[in-house]
Amino acid sequence: MEQMNTEGLPLVPVDYDSAEVPESVKQTRPVVYQDGDGISCLLGPDPERGIFGRGKTLKEALSTFDRQFQDRLEHPIKGDPVSEFIQKRHI
């Protein structure tokens, strides 16, 4: 699966051991970065084809990402590398 190029992005650290971090984030470790006045979270090549979450806080961004992850997990797209990637990592 192609992941977005992170060169030059202001990455945001994530404590993957925190109980507040959704399992979807722990399993897939998406790119988390400062995006203007918010934080974005992306698994995949870009927000349109990947799983994308955004929020004013890290918690909001991860929560939005988790909702998108759950939707893609329940409704996978045939031939989609991101869908295939998360299906393999789902517990």
Structural key phrases:
3 strands, three-stranded antiparallel sheet, 91 residues
The overall pLDDT, averaged over residues, is: 95
Number of strands: 3
Largest sheet: 3 strands, antiparallel
* Portion in helices: 25-40%
Low-confidence stretches: none
Structural class computed from helices and strand pairing: alpha+beta
Number of helices: 3
Read across the widest sheet, the strand sequence of neighbours is 1-2-3
| Overall shape | globular
Beta-strand portion reads 15-25%
Distance between the termini: 19 Å
Order of helices and strands: HEEEHH
Our count of domains comes out at 1
Integer-rounded radius of gyration = 12 Å
Summarize the structure.
The protein has 91 residues and is α+β, with helices and mostly antiparallel strands. It is 35% helix and 18% strand. The protein has one domain (23-89).
